[in-house]
Amino acid sequence: MKKILSITMLAILMLATSIQKTNAQAAFKVPVYEKFTLKNGLTVYLMEQHEVPTISISMVIPAGAIYDGDKNGLASFTANGLKYGTKNFTKPQIEEQLDFLGASLNTYSSKEFAGLSSKFAKNDQDKVLPIIKEVLLYPVFNQEEFDKEKARALQNLVRAKESPRNVINNYWDKFIYGDHPYANPIGGKTSTLKDITTTDLKSFYAKNYVPNGSAIAIVGDFNPKTMKDKISDLFKDWKKGEANSLKIAEPEALSNKARVLLINKDDARETTMLIGGKGIKRDNPDFVAIEVINTVLGGRFTSMLNDELRVNSGLTYGARSSFSSLKNAGTFNVSTFTATKTTEPTIDKALEVLKKIHDKGIDDETLTSAKNYVNGQFPPDYETSGQLAGLLTQMFWYGFDESFINNFQANVNGLTSAKAKEIITKYFPYENLQFLFVGKADDIKKIVEKLGPVTVKEIKADGF
């Protein structure tokens, strides 16, 4: 009897612990932060987090690949070039100082914006912040360092095309967006990279690296009043310019007919594919519901796509679906790969899964499982100071506020099977699909011709 009571008590304790964890997750909110704008237009976010004596910085600047013009790769070169040396620091001096302090400083370019991230000890802020200022405000774009970077970039472009999965998204963006700037490959292409000079970098920097339209988020162990004074003083000499981030128009409507792009790779033994079409903007009000449904379709290992294409049929080692969401547009695709000889059944099976979720929707049991999965993955994404700093700059760039986070789990839990069916019909492409294949054209062209008009490109040709 005592043993039975002990087991019962243990079960009650475990249940209580589980409820506490669930309640803790449900209570997750964006920590308190301060937001203000400097006279030059730079938006600043400050969030105190005193658990660990470190500070993390995230920054976004309207200087992404969409502003490359006809010099694809220019934004990426410029972002990397910020660390080639500055007015007062050489590249080795910057690296040695950061290494000595155990601090990090990274610059990069994405499709829409350039970014900077940094992490350092609280006690080193007066040593690292001046370096960040130098990198942002006074880069010199050293010729020798640029030449080395350019040589590496050109070699990387050649190597990347040896593996279709490295470049297929560049082909997809060009296929979907056409001549729109969203088609610009972040890493550029050979014909444009070889002609880019440090003069181009300096010109791009002068035009696009402006404080208005940019934002910096600082999260960590600091005094907010002191940090506000420091940041205001640090960037007071950054001159206001013309903000470019609002000039990119929405892409034209996607083709209303099924199309096929076939990238020929003569030595391919497998076919790599993307199937999909139009997606959503990042600020879509149904973003959370779409994420839950996509988890069922292809967003986790136990998804419908992975079950059918990998587990049940053995056609591939993996299959997934995803939305790539930008400020003014987005795409959706199902992605997988298979041996050349199983190309046709793999396509058929992927389309079968898409048809199934459109015809039948999602049952309550499966939907509950997906909700639990998404809720479980949610809080760990915003645990560290770096993650929170990144969240704040994402909020700035894409125009959503803390309600996205604060109401996230409520929106997840409120999704019903009936609502899921509406979301699937509205946002998950099924008719007039766009198909992209990378493989041996001689072996698969007749197969893919059944899907729509085919355009063939050579993977060895320049660009995408």
TrEMBL record:
InterPro entries: Metalloenz_LuxS/M16, MPP/UQCRC_Complex, Pept_M16_N, Peptidase_M16_C. The keyword Nucleus does not apply. It comes from Pedobacter psychrophilus. Residues 46-187 form the Peptidase M16 N-terminal domain. Residues 195-372 form the Peptidase M16 C-terminal domain. Keywords: Signal. It comes from the Bacteria. Residues 1-26 form the signal peptide. One of its GO terms (molecular function) is metal ion binding. This is Peptidase M16. It holds the Pfam family Peptidase_M16_C.
